[in-house]
Write a structure and sequence with these properties.
heterotrimer; A mainly alpha (660); B mainly alpha (219); C mainly alpha (312); B: 219 residues; mainly alpha; 7 helices; C: 312 residues; 11 helices; 69% helix; globular
């Protein structure tokens, strides 16, 4: 049953992926529309696959295929209710696909809700754990708050439509053309808040590091790799498609808001990721960071499109954002599957208790290294390609905007460079402490490689990482359709204007050549030089090689000498203490004299400022208000019925007053 | 001297003044701060000389000479003497962390340029960007005074601020009248002398020259 | 033709790297009133290391043997991106990479070294890796801002294009933002090349180890590869500074007169920067590790001001 379910998901994702590829590569064509059965009298429901939908369908298909390959072997062991998990997984993938293809608000919202509920089931599947249940509850609350915001946004737009098909996207689009700017901005901000809560932007990210680790690893891969992208899809759909004014550029406040929250999310996400010692929590925070990077590109595109900057630069920024969405799905999916593989074989989540797994689980280790190099935006893999495009967009866009805007763009670029460095440090820690060094526990000592289907899932995503990095031209052809729809110019025309193997960014000042890089050529040069260096290194020598223990000042090396993850991140904990507010407690147990130490205990903590500053205060306010309101409840039936009567009368009065 | 060359030189000297101001902010030891403010005064004197050559105003040459002699020679020498005599610890202790002060200085520079743009002041013919740079220098000098504990470092901040005022005056009116310049410099010298005497007095009766101790004087 | 030029430049940088290090050591020794080792000592050290056998840690994975090779390859690839002798105008040259790719290749080398250090286990490797990654990531934002402030003026981040454009005509046309960016990059050069006051390249004590801590477990030819990578990285950074701020004398074509002039100009620029590094190393003490962020913060603010003066 489990196997058939997963094979079904695999089949659907392969078919869906092929279909999406077909739509993307076909070029300019009207979107396919499929009408759905009438569920509501006041709204028709339909699906439409245009370029943007097809691109996100491709993202879903990629990670879903890998998760489907991975799932059955993962669930074979000690999984809880595997049948329920399989069904939820299938439902989850299906709902995400429907969200991306929805052509009217009702389909969108229904599928959105289905997506939330299916992933909730996956989060709380391990109901024995108190933590998981609480994480699921928080997830549900925040997801529904976000859905409420999106619902209100749709309703406000629909209220401006005069005829019957109020919820269809074409009707909403037409109505939005003549909106006054305040309403338009309000709707966008509501949508941004709603989708942002789902995407995990700071400060609405609090649920993410609790919920993503609770779900089984292939579900976490889907949640981090794909569900966040569906939220990005929502933001792009609202910002660039539904709310487009009839003429003139998008309001500057949109672009700047998205850019600023993107930058803040990126920096805070990776800072918090660095301090985590639980592998999946670290990956969840890192997703917050990457969503921030995508939003930087999206915000820049909003600033530059339609006349304020130049359309080519807007396309470059948009292409950078979309490519990073695809890249992140690939390498985050790979990393989550790798983490799942480790947890599956050792049962341990804390990286400080692992170590030495590279020799025991070689495939997992090297695939995880591939994912780490990709997410740290190091050449020549795909993470660098999309970050390079973002940097170029910031530079050229900043130069084009000039003045204070240019300065802010430069600041955003330096913060992006900071997050790149922090991500490299974070994943050096994650990979190094988990897989390298000596084993620090019995379970790590006894670990063996994961079964082949799990490795196959990871290899699929690893191949995607390498392919997207070394052959960016073909990757950008996939972006042609969405960018042509959203900003009018195909991505290939701007970014690969100098050939399929070369990324180039132009559109700056007049008379200047575009800056171009060729990751393929760089990779080739790198490989050549590595081969030469290997030959030099392997030159025949007089003295033979030998093995010896690691130098530990003459003592017998044990695993206690190895640097733990907490120690690795300590300098940054002190340097960025303003963000972390670290606290530590040292407990000493001394013997007869204060110089004889029997036991030393160290415990340290970093806080997530969003939780302590924002949420704790909000919770306290809600509790206080609830207590105050409770003081007024009479406990008598007549009082409650009286309240109901008063509310009905009020609603009728408002309704009557609102009628013209 | 051609106008373009003068403009470029004054722009570059403005950048050098900003850099020395950052060195004063980031200085961890007394001597470094004092040397930085002395270098700043040298650059200021050179800027005055360049402006004098470009406009043909002889007063500016005099002012440049006085600036170099007094603010790059006499006052730093005085401060170093006080530091040696008093024998206080050389470390400069900031009230708020240095990184935050550096960030505030950067924000002040941006603010100065933004003010410049919003007030509609255009780039001057000879003095170029000197107005916003001068305003920024003055404000950062006051920032140094506000964020350092030791009295002597606050003096350094005062000197730096006065450098900024002079640079601003150069930008706006191509140099103030000679008598006002001499008056200002005399005021600064007097202030330095008073502060030096006070510090020596305070040092001999109380152990430290931490300004925070003055808080105990409130009623 | 262009490929031959790039290959020749890379070879030149690889061969001259140890000489620059030898020169800095010699000058430091003289400033400290010592005789000092000979200029050619780094070459002798490399030859000695290549002759020796490898002692490898028994906990290291097979990846450990590959780390020195990959690091050298990454730095050598970075060396192909800087214009050392030739800066042909126009789009005549094959596109390899720009300044951002160069910085990313340095980051790749640092990442690989850190992973290798954690592979061997032990506290030295962990400490060195942790500290080196920390300093590296604090340098990144400031360098990016400095590159931006130069790039905004030139409209591109491609180093050859920038050098070609600014070389002949505007070489002396430095403006205020260039000066501030130059000061910022000088501060960051000290951090990137791992010299006092950020790191001490001469010792292997725990307290001064940032870079050296990561190299402790490498030996023999592996260590030779990493030592060569370090020398090359230093020269590439100096060449980067020269290309960004003093793109004088670069030859636009293959005429021997131009090339000779370019070689002499390159030598002079590198010499001046090496003298700067040696003087700074001899004048200051190494900073305590947690004061390094303040030092780098000064560089960041300078770079920020450079960008501000450029766009405002």
């Amino acid at each position: 049953m489990v196997w058939t379910g997963h094979l079904l998901v695999l089949a659907f994702s392969l078919v869906g992926g092929a279909g999406a590829l077909g739509v993307l590569l076909k070029g300019a064509a009207p979107p396919l529309r499929v009408a759905l059965p009438h569920l509501f009298p006041f709204a028709t429901m339909s699906l439409a696959v245009d370029g943007l939908s097809a691109f996100f369908l491709l993202v879903i298909a990629l990670v879903a295929a890998a998760a489907a390959l991975y799932g059955p072997a993962y669930l074979d062991a000690h999984a809880k209710s595997p049948v329920v998990q399989t069904v939820s997984l299938g439902l989850f993938v299906a709902c995400m696909a429907i969200v991306c293809c929805a052509a009217d608000a009702m389909t969108f919202l229904l599928a959105w809700e289905g997506m939330t509920l299916a992933s909730y089931v996956l989060v709380v599947i391990d109901m024995q754990s108190e933590e998981n249940v609480r994480a699921g509850l928080l997830y549900l609350i925040m997801a529904h708050a976000g859905t409420a915001a999106i619902l209100v946004a749709f309703l406000v737009l629909a209220s401006h439509v005069s005829h019957a098909e109020a919820f269809d996207f074409t009707a909403l689009r037409a109505a939005a053309r003549d909106l006054d700017p305040t309403t338009r901005t309000t709707v966008f901000m509501l949508a941004l808040a709603g989708f942002g809560a789902k995407a995990g932007v700071v400060p609405l990210h609090v649920w993410l590091p609790k919920a993503h680790p609770a779900a089984p690893s292939h579900a976490s891969a889907l949640m981090s790799g794909v569900m966040l992208k569906v939220a990005i899809y929502g933001i792009l759909r609202f910002g660039f498609d539904l709310l487009l004014p009839a003429e003139g550029p998008l309001p500057a406040s949109w672009g700047w808001t998205v850019l600023v929250i993107g930058t803040v999310s990126a920096v805070i996400g990776v800072l918090l990721a660095l301090q985590q010692h639980e592998l999946k929590r670290l990956l969840a925070f890192s997703s917050v960071e990457n969503v921030g990077i995508i939003l930087i590109g999206a915000g820049l595109a909003m600033l530059l499109c339609r006349g304020r900057g130049s359309q080519e630069l807007a396309t470059l920024a948009l292409a950078a954002a979309l490519l990073h969405a695809l890249n992140h799905a690939a390498f985050k999916g790979l990393l989550f599957l790798g983490a799942g593989s480790v947890i599956h074989r050792t049962g341990i989540r804390n990286i400080d208790d692992l170590g030495g797994l590279a020799r025991r689980m070689p495939w997992t280790a090297w695939l995880f290294l591939l994912g780490s190099v990709a997410i740290a935006a190091l050449p020549p893999l795909n993470g660098f390609a999309s970050e390079w495009m973002t940097f170029q967009a910031l530079l050229l866009g900043g130069a084009r905007l000039g003045g204070a805007s240019g300065l802010l763009a430069g600041l955003a670029a330096s913060m992006l460079a900071l997050t790149g460095g922090l991500a490299a440090a974070c994943f050096a820690k994650a990979f190094g402490v988990t897989f390298l060094g000596r084993t620090r526990s019995l379970q790590a000592e006894r670990a063996t490689e994961s079964p082949a289907p799990m490795i196959a899932g990871m290899v699929l995503l690893g191949a995607a990482c390498v392919g997207l990095g070394l052959a960016p031209g073909w990757a950008l052809r996939l972006l042609d359709a969405p960018t042509a729809e959203l900003s009018g110019i195909a991505a290939s025309a701007v970014v690969t204007s100098q050939g399929p193997l070369v990324l180039s960014a132009g559109g700056g000042a007049e008379g200047l050549h575009a800056t171009s890089i060729s990751l393929t050529a760089v990779a080739a040069v790198f490989a050549l030089l590595a081969a030469v260096a290997w030959v030099i290194r392997g030159w025949p020598r007089r003295a033979p090689s030998r093995l010896a223990p690691t130098w530990t000042c003459g003592m017998t090396p044990t695993s206690r000498f190895d640097y733990t993850g907490t120690a690795f991140a300590k300098p940054l904990r002190l340097i960025f203490a303003a963000v972390y507010r670290p606290s530590r407690e040292i407990v000493k147990d001394v013997g007869s004299s204060p110089y004889v130490l029997r036991m030393l205990g160290y415990s340290g903590e970093v806080v997530d400022l969003a939780e302590t500053v924002v949420y704790a205060r909000f919770k306290r306010w809600v509790t206080v208000s609830a207590h105050a309101i409770r003081a007024h409840s009479t406990g008598r039936i007549h009082g409650y019925i009286g309240f109901v009567l008063a509310t009905l009368v009020l609603a009728l009065l408002l309704f009557a007053g609102a009628r013209p | 001297m051609s106008v373009e060359l003068a403009t470029r030189l004054i722009d570059i000297l403005g950048a050098l003044l900003l850099f020395t101001m950052l060195l004063i902010l980031a200085a961890g030891q007394m001597y470094r701060a004092i040397y930085a403010v002395a270098t700043q005064a040298v650059f200021l004197g050179v800027a005055g000389a360049v402006l004098g050559a470009a406009t043909g105003n002889v007063d500016l040459w005099t002012i440049a000479a006085i600036t170099i002699v007094v603010k790059a020679g006499l006052l730093p020498w005085l401060l170093i003497r006080v530091v040696r005599r008093v024998g206080i610890s050389r470390e400069i202790e900031p009230v708020i962390p240095t990184t935050i002060t550096l960030a505030m200085a950067a924000a002040i520079v941006v603010l100065a340029f933004w003010l410049n743009a919003s007030l509609g002041a255009v780039r001057q013919a000879i003095t170029g960007n000197a107005l916003p740079v001068g305003v920024a220098l003055t404000l950062i000098g006051v920032l140094v005074m506000a964020t350092r504990r030791k009295a002597l470092v606050q003096m350094v901040g005062l000197f730096a601020s006065e450098n900024g005022i002079f640079f601003t005056a150069m930008a706006v009116s191509q140099g103030m009248p000679l008598i006002i310049e001499i008056g200002v410099i005399l005021d600064v010298v007097l202030g330095a002398l008073v502060m030096g005497i006070l510090v020596l007095r305070v040092r001999s009766s109380v152990d430290d020259t931490d300004i925070a101790d003055l808080e105990n004087l409130k009623g | 033709m262009r490929i031959a030029q790039i290959a020749l430049q890379t070879l030149l940088v690889l061969l001259l790297g140890p000489l620059v290090t030898g020169f800095i050591q010699k000058l430091k020794a003289r400033l400290q009133c010592r005789a000092g080792a000979s200029l050619w000592q780094p070459y002798r050290d490399l030859a000695k290391l290549l002759r020796k056998g490898t002692v490898q840690s028994d906990t290291a994975s097979p990846f450990f043997r590959a780390v020195p090779v990959l690091v050298l390859a990454a730095i050598a690839t970075a060396a192909t991106l800087v214009p050392v002798l030739w800066a042909p105008a126009g789009s005549a040259h094959p596109r390899l990479g720009d300044a951002i790719l160069l910085l990313a290749l340095f980051a790749l080398a640092r990442f690989l070294l850190a992973i290798g250090a954690l592979d061997a286990g032990g506290a030295f490797g962990g400490m060195g890796a942790s500290r080196e990654m920390t300093v590296g990531l604090l340098v990144e934002p400031a360098l990016m801002m400095a590159v931006f402030s130069v790039g905004v003026a030139g409209g591109t981040t491609d180093l050859v294009d920038l050098a070609a454009r600014r070389g002949a005509v505007e070489a002396l046309a430095w403006q205020a933002p260039d000066l501030l960016a130059f000061f910022a990059v000088l501060i960051l050069t000290i951090a990137e090349t791992g010299r006092i006051p950020v790191d001490n390249p001469d010792t292997h004590l725990e307290l001064t180890m940032l870079h050296e801590g990561m190299l402790l477990e490498h030996s023999g030819p592996g260590l030779a590869c990493i030592a060569l990578a370090t020398h090359t990285k230093q020269l590439v950074i100096l060449a980067l500074v020269a290309a960004l701020f003093f793109p004088l004398g670069l030859s636009p074509d293959a005429a021997p007169g131009h090339v000779a002039l370019a070689l002499a100009a390159f030598g002079a620029k590198v010499l001046a920067l090496a003298v700067f590094l040696a003087v700074v190393e001899s004048s200051y003490a190494k900073l305590r590790f947690f004061r390094v962020p303040q030092f780098l913060g000064l560089g960041l603010v300078c770079a920020f001001l450079a960008l501000a003066l450029r766009v405002l």
